Amino acid sequence: MTLVKLDLDRDGKVLPPRHDKLIVIDADTVAFASCIVCEYEVEDDKWDISLTEALSHSMDKLQRILDIVGGKPENVRLHFTGGRDSFRYQLLKDAFPEDPEMHYKFKRKKKRAPVGLRDLKKLLCNEFEGVIHYDWEADDQVVLDKKVLGDEAILVAVDKDVIMNTVGTHFNYYESAQYKIAMKWVTISEDEARYNQYMQMLTGDKSDNIPGIKGVGPAKAAKFLVEGMSEEELWQGVLFAHRSLCKREDISPEDMALLNARLVGMHQLTDKGIVLWSPKH
User: Which is higher by pLDDT, 75 or 7?
Assistant: First the structure.
């Protein structure tokens, strides 16, 4: 009789076999969540944090991710966003210089960032192979890594822009005990990835203050775009929707369509840096 050694998690569940694939993680949310959990108010609106506890909290989350995806700590690559200077900020500033409420992530600027976030990112970069990006965001980098490495890498993220617009089987590490949501695998086909990106050119992204077309949600956007369309057909649908529904006086419908496309585009980072999206003719 041959005995097989099994790895078990903390609850006694059998873990998948370990492999040598690179685990590419958009880890901004890991660090942010740990800082939120571990910070404490010392007096009115003054906060402090135990970075040791925050690091432990992040390491626990990352270990649980590795346990499920079968990765090894030495094969982890963490990516973080370093600030508010990425190309998307500049795109909206250039388009609407006199209207700060139109700027990228405008609503987030009003909120206090958790204490210790920058320091925790640096600590995590010391624990694993990690990079903090300033000219683009962590999600741009993980998409490029996955595109370059293909099946040799597993993309791990929570942002729907990353997961839904990238071909392959990815791991979404979002979980919520309150809403009974567990971390899960998500598979996106080439048609789905292409369609999702063009849909977002119309719907925008409220959390990032990407405008899209005012009043257009998925149902209305679906009247202009059909899954299975070619890229040229999808772009013509985006243009038609902007010409029909975009009523801004400070920018043409065509320029607004191109701006939205570049704001939501998840495939603009190349080995030569950012190459802004342009329609294929």
Answer: 75
State the DSSP H helix or E strand holding residue 270, giving kind and residue range, or none if neither.
strand 269-270
**Pick from 146, 20, 132, 17: nearest CA to 74:** 20
User: What's CA 18's distance to the chain center, in Å?
Assistant: 26
Strands 168-172 and 184-188: antiparallel
List of domains in the chain: 22-188 (3.40.50.1010), 192-274 (1.10.150.20)
Q: Is the dihedral of CA 163, 169, 174, 178 positive or negative?
A: positive
Query: What is the amino acid identity at position 94?
Result: D
What is the C-alpha to C-alpha distance for residues 42 and 277, in angstroms, rounded to an integer? 47
Cα(93)–Cα(193) distance, rounded to whole angstroms?
28
- DSSP-derived letter for residue 126 is H
d(CA 183, CA 201): 27
Asked if 120 contacts 58 with a C-beta cutoff of 8 angstroms, the reply is yes
Q: Which helix (H) or strand (E) holds 76?
A: strand 76-81
Q: What does the pLDDT read at residue 9?
A: 64
The whole-number pLDDT of residue 2 equals 47
The residues near 104 (Cβ < 8 Å, ≥ 6 apart) are 84, 86, 88, 89, 91, 92, 93, 208, 209, 210, 263
Render pLDDT for 243-260 as a digit per residue (tens, 0 to 9). 999 999 999 999 999 999
Q: How high is the pLDDT of residue 16?
A: 85
pTM of the model: 0.93
